[in-house]
Write a structure and sequence with these properties.
Elements: E1 4-19, E2 23-30, E3 34-40, E4 59-67, E5 73-82, H1 91-107, H2 115-129, H3 134-149, E6 170-172, E7 179-180, H4 182-185, E8 190-192, H5 194-205, H6 208-212, H7 218-236, H8 241-252
Parallel strand pairs: 3-5
Antiparallel strand pairs: 1-2, 1-4, 2-3, 4-5, 6-7, 6-8
Length: 253
């Protein structure tokens, strides 16, 4: 008989899904154990011990049982450390929260330590709760998660010729794979302005609150969104479902 191990860790809740009439499946991210998934039995029952604790993007102390060979653990307790409720009081906040969590559901690995990814999500949520500009936070998060995954092109110099990007900026290949100088890029692809390159270099060395002290222009943020989207789609070979949902619903508002 496979042994059942008791685990406990600080976690960020990524997703909560109903299971049958009484239970819920909770996906959460820990620094030590990576992405985990477990059943919270009785979570849908009135006066459940999980009542009010299973909030998407909340930070909590989670205790769960794992059995070797099984994908789903059994969650025994969830103690809320920080709520994310203020972020989810309007449609834009709800959609943004889902979009952030969707990245971790896709990029974080089960059972592998995820210190950097966990810190990124934690600090981004904290900054949003403190009132940082939402589009800025989304672009910062997108660029950093692709950077941590190892697929974000360097904003420092052209990987083809090795030269620093010239004053006219750079070009992202249509594939979304490389960021090249205009000479090597041949003018085909997404044009990336010097201001956007400067912003990408800033977020590589500054925290989100520090970047927020000097906001880039809306044009720069739109270009970063386009750039990150192309890189993400090239890597995943598809788009995150939450991104399409967010774009459609906000366009209707």
């Amino acid at each position: 008989m496979a042994a059942m191990a008791l685990q406990t860790a600080e976690a960020l809740i990524l997703d909560v899904m109903d299971l049958h009439d009484r239970d819920r499946i909770v996906t959460f991210l820990t620094r030590e154990h990576g992405k985990k998934k477990g059943v919270a039995k009785g979570a849908r029952v009135k006066h459940s011990r999980f009542g009010g604790q299973l909030q998407p993007l909340a930070k909590a102390q989670v205790t769960w049982f794992e059995k070797e060979g099984r994908d789903l653990g059994r969650i025994s307790s969830v103690e809320l450390i920080r709520t994310a409720h203020p972020l989810q009081t309007d449609l834009e906040g709800i959609l943004l929260g889902s979009y952030l969590a969707d990245h971790l559901l896709e990029f974080a690995q089960e059972g592998e330590a995820s210190d950097h990814l966990s810190r990124l999500l934690d600090t981004t949520v904290q900054a949003l709760l403190a009132g940082v500009d939402r589009p800025l936070a989304a672009r910062y998060f997108e660029a950093w998660i692709l950077r941590l995954t190892g697929v974000f092109p360097s904003p420092q110099s052209c990987p083809s010729c090795g030269s620093p990007y010239p004053p006219e900026g750079a070009v992202l290949q249509r594939s979304g794979e490389n960021l090249l100088c205009p000479d090597c890029g041949g003018g085909s692809g997404l044009a990336v302005s010097p201001a956007t390159l400067d912003f990408l270099r800033r977020i590589g060395r500054e925290s989100l609150p520090a970047v927020a002290e000097r906001l880039p222009t809306p044009a720069v943020l739109r270009q970063v969104e386009d750039l990150c989207g192309q890189v993400r789609r090239h890597f995943l070979q598809r788009e995150l479902r939450s991104y399409g949902v967010m774009q459609r619903m906000l366009a209707e508002v």
